[in-house]
Amino acid sequence: MASAHPKTPVMADVALLAGVSHQTVSRVLNGHPHIRQSTRERVERAIAQLSYQPNTAARALVRGRSGLIGIVTGSGAFYGPRSAHQGVSAAARKAGYSVTSVELDDITEATLAAAVEDLSRLGVEGLIVVAGHDAAVDVARKRAGALPIVVVEGDLTRAAMSAGVDQVAGAVAATEHLIGLGHRRIAHISGPLHWCEARARLEGWQLAMGRSGLPAVHLLRGDWSPESGYTAGQQIAADAEITAVFASNDQMALGALRALREAGRSVPGDVSLVGFDDIPEAAYLFPPLTTVHQDFAAVGHQAIAVLAAALSGAELPTPGLLSAPLIERASTAPPRKDR
Description:
Layout: H1 11-18, H2 22-29, H3 37-50, H4 56-63, E1 68-74, H5 79-94, E2 98-104, H6 109-121, E3 126-130, H7 134-142, E4 149-152, E5 162-163, H8 167-181, E6 186-190, H9 196-211, E7 219-221, H10 226-237, E8 244-247, H11 250-262, E9 272-277, E10 290-293, H12 296-312, E11 326-327
Parallel strand pairs: 1-2, 1-3, 3-4, 4-5, 6-7, 6-8, 8-9, 9-10
Antiparallel strand pairs: 10-11
């Protein structure tokens, strides 16, 4: 007689369906770095097909650990940090960890240190700090001996354990795209320069301009918001020399787009425009926005893999930044021949 209730899948079922060992499934769930990508994908497909849910409590009991990961991030509405937080949380849960988060209204070394202390008292196994401020790296370095801390989005060159996107290379690609189209007077709308990403993207713009022998003089400061992009766009619209703009995020690009159109400057007819992040709305703006894509799901997976390796005592994955490809859309074109 058939059971009235379907059997709850266990790890052995996943192993059988994926054609791997029980230990391999366990390693995938724990984010072990030394797993072939094809094997990892096969196990993940089996997990999804069976709707398998790791027994976090049982695993924690066996390991003598809490199975709890702490995440510290800012409470702002900026797309990048918010998406990185979501990517880390999803990857942690997929690996069988529970997650507890602290969102800070004001990110300073003092508030970050207090958040780390609060999460430590909750018994977290490790921490991931999603904050693009110098303070995040400083706190991580000071606390490195007490608790494994992975930094996401900060100055990753200064962090012992980190995960993130190659911001400089992404900005170079954005600027070189405009140079390749024939633009010579290219403005940059930066983010706030106490953010590591803003400095990295500024550096990429300057590097690409310098390599081509072009003056990197049209710099306008923003704060990541559409409002600051709008203000910068008004200044750009008033300067007939500028034929292209690289904005440090898509939200500022959106503000600049409106300012340019209100001033009668068409995009890309008069001014080409590139953003950074590839927000979901970027493909549906008018015109669709050329931008640099960040894979936040991959960032989350990388962060959890690094943390899991540290927790298990395994060799840490080889440090490496994820690529940030340029997505070409209709907001960029060669300058008009009369320019």
